[in-house]
Amino acid sequence: MNKHEWIAGILAEKHKKPLPILSYPAIQKLGTTVRELIMSSTLQARGMKIVADSFPTLASVSLMDLSVEAECFGANIIVSDGEVPTVSGALVTTPEEAAALKVPPLSAGRAGLYVDAIKRAKELISGRPVLAGVIGPFSLAGRLVDVTEAMILCYEDPEMLKTVLDKATDFLVNYIRAYREAGADGVVIAEPLAGMLSPDLCAEFSEPYIRRIVQSCGADDFLLVYHNCGNGAVRMLDSILNTGCDMYHFGDAVDMREVLKRMPQGVVAMGNVSPANEFLGGTPKSVYEATQALLRDCAAYPNFVLSSGCDIPPLSPWENIEAFFRAAEEFKA
């Protein structure tokens, strides 16, 4: 896939296919649990295939599991049957521990399993790009030092934080390269914690590390999608765009119209039907109406692509997901 030609084709289409972050709800069709899904590359690939066969997505997206990378470093994670895994506690608490932190091999945790899942998915899915998922560097650093502590370190010990950021970025470059070698057409880089920063702090503690990933992993045949679901994303949009990613994805904490007003016309911006309020907590009727309302709001922008605001929760009713796609198909600008 030539990503430039693919993006140009999207921009030229009047009625664009949606690209929701949709993977976990496949457990309902697989008859399995999140706990089992995250431990099986076969189940992950089969789940992606089920979604691809069920819905006309613009691309196929793997799990947005933001615990994988921290677990590779040695962090403790909490796993359940129906919820997305989370990280518990801080692995790095002092400058000395930051200096001693080792960049782990992909064999240290589940990263290799997730790479294998993408390799298997590529064998099953055709006709659309297959995108892997990774966490962003600031969001990974926050999981290693504790989210609240990461915010404090921006002011009190930026050098310690940057030490962790450097090692997090080195690991992510290796991880993304492994995905590319496995056949992935690109990755979604989820940097939600950066959405809590000020524009200046984002420019210092997130942007340069994302840019390093782009410079190390970018290629004409490899798509880099940036995701930020914070409510400060509009204010830091200049810094976000400076990362040099190919496409950008935003959460439902922001007004997509405000994002699109500031996006360059040739740059795709995706979002942002609420995963919690609509996909999980809504009804087919409310999801349909919310989706159509968003499409009306953004109809004037040819660089808008409909999506969920973040990853769709595992137990979201399948009927709500169907309503989202039906609203997209039936929308008339």
What does this structure look like?
This protein has 333 residues and is an alpha/beta fold. It is built from 17 helices and nine strands. The chain has a seven-stranded parallel β-sheet with strand order 1-4-5-6-7-8-9, sandwiched between helices. A two-stranded antiparallel ribbon has the order 2-3. Helix 16 packs parallel to helix 17 (318-330). The radius of gyration is 19 Å and the shape is globular. It starts with a helix and ends with a helix. The model has no long low-confidence stretch (mean pLDDT 96).
Summarize the structure.
The protein has 333 residues and is an alpha/beta fold. It contains 17 helices and nine strands. Helix 14 links the parallel strand 7 and strand 8.
Produce the secondary structure layout:
Layout: H1 3-12, H2 27-30, H3 34-37, H4 41-54, E1 60-61, H5 68-73, E2 76-78, E3 86-88, H6 95-100, H7 111-124, E4 130-135, H8 137-145, H9 147-156, H10 158-181, E5 186-190, H11 199-205, H12 207-217, E6 223-228, H13 237-241, E7 247-250, H14 256-262, E8 268-273, H15 275-280, H16 284-298, E9 304-308, H17 318-330
Parallel strand pairs: 1-4, 4-5, 5-6, 6-7, 7-8, 8-9
Antiparallel strand pairs: 2-3
Domain Uroporphyrinogen decarboxylase (URO-D): 28-330
Pfam families: URO-D (PF01208)
Organism: Candidatus Gallimonas gallistercoris
Which terms summarize this structure?
single chain, 333 residues, alpha/beta, seven-stranded parallel β-sheet, two-stranded antiparallel sheet, Methanogen_methyltrans
Strand order of the largest sheet: 1-4-5-6-7-8-9
Helix content: 40-55%
Number of strands: 9
Tally of helical segments: 17
What sequence of helices (H) and strands (E) makes up the elements?
HHHHEHEEHHEHHHEHHEHEHEHHEH
Judging from the principal axes of the Cα atoms, what is the shape?
globular
Please give the radius of gyration in angstroms.
19 Å
Oligomer: single chain
Residue-averaged pLDDT, rounded? 96
N-C termini distance: 30 Å
Percent of residues in beta strands? 5-15%
Uncertain segments are none
Structural class: alpha/beta
Main beta sheet: strand number and arrangement?
A: 7 strands, parallel
